[in-house]
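Risk mitigation, structural track. In case the binding assays with adenosine-5'-triphosphate fail to produce interpretable data, a predicted complex structure has been prepared as a fallback.
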Amino acid sequence: MAAQLQFHNVTLGYDRHPAVHHLKGEVASGALVAVIGPNGAGKSTLLRGIVGIVKPLAGSIHLGGIDARDIAYLPQSAEIDRSFPISVFDFVGTGLWRGTGLFGGIGKTARKKILDAIAAVGLSGFENRPIETLSGGQMQRVLFARVLLQDARLIVLDEPFNAIDSKTTTDLLALVKRWHGEGRTVLAALHDLEMVRNHFSETLVLARGPVAWGPTSEALTPENLMVAMRMCEAFDDSAAACADDAHSQAA
Ligand SMILES: Nc1ncnc2c1ncn2[C@@H]1O[C@H](COP(=O)(O)OP(=O)(O)OP(=O)(O)O)[C@@H](O)[C@H]1O
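Fallback model:
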């Protein structure tokens, strides 16, 4: 299977302080990958690196045959400014920007697509509600509807099931499985290890650097989780980029 994503010894971070170190490897097209690790392990940073929000301090990330517009990204809910005055319909409709442009009009076909996406996440009737009035679980459904509409080859989900009830989780997990069944590549940062074991075929255990990466049954072991915990605890947050990273960046 062709690679959808390649990590070439990539280091990602903020203000020259690395948050994810020396990641090498690739994600096959159509893979369903869980990214797990303790708090602060670098999961969000890695996902932000993939979608281009965080630029590598060293090394590189290659997208196999797609460009950044072909990626749908669901950020952590805390990163979304819910006070922005926008309705559910208009927010979900931003998933079509790739086709319509920022100021493109929404025609009949686009309107139907938006309504269908809202219906697919069980929110018919909520179209005119301002997003700030939604519950956490409803907002998560809205975010999934926007991803659905993006029709992307690569889908990147940052803690998509955080703080939502089991019914919502079941519904949204079914969407993830549908995307996987359609041959899309899906990466998700997750904390629920039971869910990972039961539903994700591949797992990357991250602790600033990779601890293990492969079939979930081999990567998600108590030993690897213990190593990840220790590595995160020992990590020096104020460390600068490695000398060889600084060199390769300058080159
Ligand atoms: N915008 C930022 N500026 C500076 N440092 C940041 C920024 N975002 C994250 N970091 C730091 O990068 C490191 C990795 O954070 P990251 O959010 O990627 O971890 P995570 O695995 O997603 O954690 P969690 O499970 O708690 O969401 C942490 O030390 C964090 O403080």
